[in-house]
Amino acid sequence: MKFLKILFGFIVVIGIIGLAAYYFVPKLIADQVMEKVTVELEDSGQLENIKQEIKKDPQLQAFIEEGKNVDSSQLPFQTKEEATRVLLKKFNISELQEIQAKAKNGMSAEEKQALYDQFESKLTEEEMLALKALAYKELSK
Question: What backbone torsions phi and psi does residue 140 show, to the nearest 5 degrees?
Fold first, then answer.
């Protein structure tokens, strides 16, 4: 009987640790990824290059403008960190690194469309709208 209590206690502790890891590890990874990407973009000056690229591309600008008048309280996420967590759940790390590398080196119209299709296939309509709203807020700063 004592063995069963110890075994049950051990299983409960392992379950709690597993649940904690399930909820907190993605947050930690998202925070680290977001911090790294933000610092890298700001330090290298690429953030301004990205803003200029978007201003030059009317199609991309129109896409982001869709997030202008959205009530963000109705969206699945409102911050960059929350968006990162969602993206980490929907895409694996290698896919996100590939997207970052393509964006860093510049993309053709076909590559932009393929990227849009990839996002559209993995994200819900509300998540896409939330990304547009975040992009609009970031570009308006």
Answer: -80, -10
